[in-house]
């Protein structure tokens, strides 16, 4: 599922991809998807500079997920990470049992 922002123009340069890698308790996969779809994605996509947001599910392991979001720039990510919206998303997603703490990484298109 992909969620796209409507009024967020990409500033100079390429967007930044922010990925969160997480493996949940296999009994929690449906709840993890529900929380992302109903609580997290709608809030994140409203953030200034968030261009898109989607949740990827593992093909080989259905309990592995990647939250994939594209941002206009690093400053937009920093503003989001300092926002009340980010705190709310962390609180909502903390209800899910995970096997290891989530890992957050940022990427840009190479070249």
Question: Can you describe what's shown?
Answer:
- There is one protein chain.
- By secondary structure, this protein is of the alpha+beta class.
- The protein has one domain (2-107): 2-Layer Sandwich (Alpha-Beta Plaits).
- The protein has three helices and five strands; from the N terminus they run ββαββααβ.
- A five-stranded antiparallel sheet has the order 1-3-4-2-5.
- A hairpin with a 6-residue loop joins strand 3 (50-57) and strand 4 (64-71).
- Mean pLDDT is 89; it is low at 6-11.
User: What is the CATH domain class?
Assistant: Alpha Beta
Q: Which structural class best describes the helix and strand composition?
A: alpha+beta
Physical arrangement of strands within the biggest beta sheet: 1-3-4-2-5
Radius of gyration: 14 Å
Helix percentage:
25-40%
**Number of domains as seen in the coordinates:** 1
Determine the mean pLDDT: 89
Q: What is the helix/strand order?
A: EEHEEHHE
Strand content: 25-35%
Number of strands: 5
Uncertain regions spanning at least 5 consecutive residues? 6-11
Sheet with the most strands, sense and barrel status = 5 strands, antiparallel
Protein traits:
111 residues, alpha+beta, Alpha-Beta Plaits, five-stranded antiparallel sheet, 3 helices, 29% strand
